[in-house]
Sequence to fold (146 residues):
Amino acid sequence: MLDLSLDRPPGHRFLLGLDEPVYGSVHGPPARLGPDGTAVLSLARYLGTDEQPDPDESRAALEAVATAMGVDPSMRLGERYLHAMTVTHGLPLADRGGSAGRPAVDATGLEGVFLAGDWVGPTGLLADAAVASAEEAADAALAATR
Fold:
């Protein structure tokens, strides 16, 4: 993943690769990720579970996406490159019990380790699920200290 802070939005706000598993998006507005007039561009390359790409090659692929979206080096205010980032997600599928089939906050079975996120717990979707599971995990962590 490569995040670029820019002094202005790029020429294209969204790109999804058809021949390569790449993605680029400016998420604001509506998200306010920086001062007025600036933009944050997030770029990602989707990998298979068995892929171990070279960091320099992966970054070069993301830089090519940024260029395709209209980013000029002079626009850059800052950047963050994360070569290895795990994405977790979980759709509440009927054959897995719907929302009730998602893992509970204490699903690790490890003492003092709790889960929270949009893929955890039986309540809500996306932000609602993330907040609900975070509250439940915090309550469980507090109870564990008593």
User: Anything to note?
Assistant: The chain has two domains: 2-81, 94-144. The mean pLDDT is 90. The beta strands are 2-6, 14-16, 22-26, 39-45, 76-81.
